[in-house]
């Protein structure tokens, strides 16, 4: 939005200077096209501030003004080099106003309008020649360069945004999804099962056993390496489309969308057996995990589902650890 205020102010000042210069040279028809932007853009901005015009519509309105001013200016005065200066500026103005995707359409149409204006120029000016073809093509090439620059900027921005999203969603130590985004995914998966109950969803709450002792006896760094190896093993074992979430500390949540209880139990059993293998040598004693496995019951809340998984995991802890506890009362398996 700040661009809009700066852009309208600069555009208005530049257009008023052009208007003054055109008037001094007695070119009244050119002066009219210079007056279009200062006459329309500030009121549009004012209506937008008051809320009478939606911001998106006001921005499209500004883009339209720029397009009309440029094509109109080209028809009226394309035999002066000064107008060519604006042609490379146009793609950047559109990108700032409308975002990259929409701007490209506007750029194409406006440049086509300018090319048509160049071609028709002699018709409107009794055979008078427009500015040399070489200069005109150079200004179009300069517009091409500014499109490439804006595209490059857009790409870099996309890479940076993806990087930030990853940083915000994935735990730096284990690479597992973090709690918040993980619970959002869980909510989405549950909603999907609510719509299509036959698809099913199982969740496993996995907690490493006696992790505090690993930290105390082998050191915090060893504890970290255990977490890294366990997470890597879990990720390597689950299917594409399953999710691994680090709920906190040494507690992980696994989501198995579309998997029945038998399948999820088999998978959890493999994971449980894999943990001591991948952590051999990292800790003086074998690393094991207790797992609470449950199936989502359509209509229940995230809290109810995770609460049940937690109770089952706790049952696994209290009945000897290194084991899986699962629902005894799940509906008959669809598998
Ligand atoms: N090294 C390391 N330790 C962590 C991290 N996050 C949490 N912890 C430790 O994990 C330990 C968890 O201990 P408890 O909650 O008592 O659980 P536990 O020792 O596994 O006992 P049970 O769950 O009953 O088997 C605490 O000592 C935390 O300091 C981490 O990122 N790295």
Automatic annotation (TrEMBL):
The keyword Methyltransferase does not apply. It holds the Pfam family GGDEF. Residues 199-329 form the GGDEF domain. The chain crosses the membrane at residues 30-48, 60-76, 82-99, 106-125, 131-151. GO terms for cellular component: plasma membrane. Keywords: Membrane, Transmembrane, Transmembrane helix. Its EC number is 2.7.7.65. It catalyses: 2 GTP = 3',3'-c-di-GMP + 2 diphosphate. GO terms for biological process: cell adhesion involved in single-species biofilm formation; negative regulation of bacterial-type flagellum-dependent cell motility. SUPFAM superfamilies: Nucleotide cyclase. One of its GO terms (molecular function) is diguanylate cyclase activity. It is an enzyme of class 2 (transferase). NCBIfam families: GGDEF. This is diguanylate cyclase. It comes from Acidihalobacter aeolianus.
């Amino acid at each position: 939005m700040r661009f809009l205020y700066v852009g309208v102010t600069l555009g208005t000042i530049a257009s008023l200077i052009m208007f003054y210069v055109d008037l001094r040279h007695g070119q009244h028809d050119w002066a009219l096209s210079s007056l279009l932007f200062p006459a329309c853009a500030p009121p549009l901005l004012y209506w937008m501030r008051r809320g009478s015009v939606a911001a998106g519509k006001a921005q499209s309105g500004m883009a339209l003004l720029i397009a009309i001013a440029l094509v109109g200016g080209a028809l009226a005065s394309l035999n002066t080099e000064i107008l060519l200066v604006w042609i490379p500026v146009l793609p950047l103005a559109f990108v700032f106003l409308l975002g990259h995707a929409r701007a490209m359409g506007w750029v194409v149409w406006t440049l086509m309008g300018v090319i048509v204006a160049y071609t028709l120029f002699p018709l409107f000016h009794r055979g008078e020649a427009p500015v040399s073809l070489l200069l005109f093509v150079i200004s179009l090439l300069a517009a091409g360069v500014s499109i490439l620059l804006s595209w490059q900027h857009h790409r870099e921005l996309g890479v940076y945004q993806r990087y930030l999203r990853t940083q915000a969603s994935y735990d730096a130590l284990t690479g597992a999804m973090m709690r918040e985004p993980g619970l959002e995914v869980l909510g989405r998966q549950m909603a999907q099962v609510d719509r299509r109950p036959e698809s099913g969803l199982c969740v496993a709450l996995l907690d490493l056993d006696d992790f505090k002792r690993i930290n105390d006896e082998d050191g915090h760094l060893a504890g970290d390496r255990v977490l890294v190896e366990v997470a890597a093993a879990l990720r390597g074992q689950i299917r594409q489309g399953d999710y691994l979430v680090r709920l906190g500390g040494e507690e992980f949540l696994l989501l198995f969308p579309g998997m029945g209880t038998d399948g999820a139990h088999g998978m959890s059993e493999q994971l449980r057996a894999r943990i001591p293998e991948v952590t051999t040598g990292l800790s003086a004693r074998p690393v094991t995990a207790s797992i609470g496995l449950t199936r989502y019951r359509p209509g229940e809340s995230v809290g109810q589902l995770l609460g049940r998984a937690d109770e089952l995991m706790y049952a696994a802890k209290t009945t000897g650890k290194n084991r899986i506890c699962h629902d005894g009362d799940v509906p008959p398996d669809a598998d």
